[in-house]
Amino acid sequence: MQNQFSRTEMLLGKQAVETLARCRVAVFGVGGVGGYAVEVLARSGVGTIDVFDNDKVSITNVNRQILATTHNVGQYKVDLAVERILAINPQCNATGYKMFYLVSNAHEVDLSSYDYVVDCIDTVSAKMELVRRCTRLGVPIICSMGAANKLDATAFRVADISKTDVDPLARIMRKRLRKEGIEHFKCVFSTELPLKPQCDSIDEDDGNKEDDNAAKRRITPASNAFVPAAAGIILGGEVVLDLIKER
């Protein structure tokens, strides 16, 4: 009997689909990149998906985030992610955690329980902490590098962090983690140099009404509907292929 994964089974085989149904994946950050990664995991039949984010949808998210519409501004992204996952696959064990993953609260998440971790966090210190902990535990992780201020969706590459170039975020993480003896983990990065936004925009979530100067120092990066989406789809696809290869 046909189901929502019949076409996937035709391509990957029954055993692969059954394997994905037994896997547990964590996605940290469900914005422009992470939302599309979740979409791939859900539509591929991953059996347990945990999403971590404490952000709410803002009107400026609608141009690029698959979970954001003009009808759900103000709602938590993880709630919307869980709702969407279950609409795609009601048998999935989907859970949303309203938390920003930080160095200070990293100990609250048991990463050892996951078959794969997807990093779509914006904060460098949090990304590095996630890599540290996954490396220590031997849990596979894939990290998203920079997707903002870019226009070429074809410029993304998948590589070990040691093989990355051009991407400023990858360079920072590569250098800092190498000093700690961490030299290898998979990432998705772009070979396109970041562009300078044609106009500056202050993010309403970052601005402080009592301190306009502080707000002006927090310039929101520019983005679009297709570059973050491409990065997220690649991330999700890599996770799916790795999960079925390793089992």
Shape: globular
Oligomer: single chain
Q: What percent of the residues sit in helical stretches (DSSP H or I)?
A: 25-40%
Number of strands: 7
Order of strands across the main sheet: 3-2-1-4-5-7-6
Total helical segments = 8
Largest sheet: 7 strands, mixed
Low-confidence stretches: 203-217
Strand composition percent: 5-15%
Commentary on this structure:
- The chain has 247 residues and is α/β, with parallel strands linked by helices.
- The protein has eight helices and seven strands.
- It has helices at residues 6-12, 14-22, 34-43, 77-88, 124-137, 168-178, 212-216, 227-245; strands at residues 24-28, 48-52, 93-97, 116-119, 141-144, 156-160, 186-190.
- The protein has a seven-stranded mixed sheet with strand order 3-2-1-4-5-7-6, with helices on both faces.
- Strand 4, helix 5 and strand 5 form a beta-alpha-beta unit.
- Helix 1 crosses helix 2, helix 3 packs parallel to helix 4 (77-88) and helix 3 (34-43) packs across helix 8 (227-245).
- The longest helix is centred in the last third of the chain and has 19 residues, at 227-245.
- It is globular, with a radius of gyration of 18 Å.
- The model is unreliable at 203-217 (pLDDT under 50).
